Amino acid sequence: VKLFKKPYLVEWTGSDVRIPDLMPQPYETDYEESRERSMKNQDGFRDVVNIVSDGVLMNHVPHARYIGLKISYQGYEPSTLRSPLRVVHAPSNKKIKNTEQIEKVLKGVGVEYRRIEGVPNDECIRMIADSDIYIDQFTLGVHGMASMEAMAMGKPSIALINHNRDTVVIVTGK
């Protein structure tokens, strides 16, 4: 891209730059490996426009610009609740999203549970659309993109949200 002298930007979305000990809710992982991966990923892109869609990531990529999550709200129609409720969970990383605990809790509570994994994004979206409740995670302290997509479809989304005042100031400037 530099060869053609065209401006470009890089959007960071999560685990590509997330540093566990900077999260509102630290989670168990190899901190040093995650920090090294984050720094390595960012190294080649310091002289271009960097954007993040999650305010928490401003702590991880301080030279980035915050733009907010971007999703299309077109084509999503709320569905009628069914009985038993259909609950879905689409973990990008089962350990970080605490999938084992989520599935333990859901056993025997009278819901139809489906884990979404190993499918293309459009199939994941279809499966979320065909659910009643979306469960994101209870580890990171932030919601993910799939939560936003579920809510755009009129689905309740459950996640641990633990934003601290510093993150609010970074994102809003107030």
Question: How would you characterize the overall build of this protein?
Answer:
This protein is α/β, with parallel strands linked by helices and 174 residues long. It has five helices and seven strands; from the N terminus they run βαβββαβαβαβα. It has helices spanning 31-43, 99-106, 121-129, 145-152, 165-172; strands at residues 9-12, 49-52, 65-66, 86-89, 112-115, 133-135, 157-158. The strands form two sheets. A four-stranded parallel β-sheet has the order 5-4-6-7. It has a three-stranded parallel β-sheet with strand order 1-2-3, with no helix packed on it. Helix 4 (145-152) links the parallel strand 6 and strand 7. The longest helix is centred in the N-terminal third of the chain and has 13 residues, at 31-43. The chain is globular, with a radius of gyration of 18 Å. The termini are far apart. The mean pLDDT is 82.
SS-derived structural category: alpha/beta
Strand tally, please?
7
Report the principal-axis shape.
Answer: globular
- Major beta-sheet overview: 4 strands, parallel
Q: What fraction, in percent, of the residue positions are helical?
A: 25-40%
Strand content: 5-15%
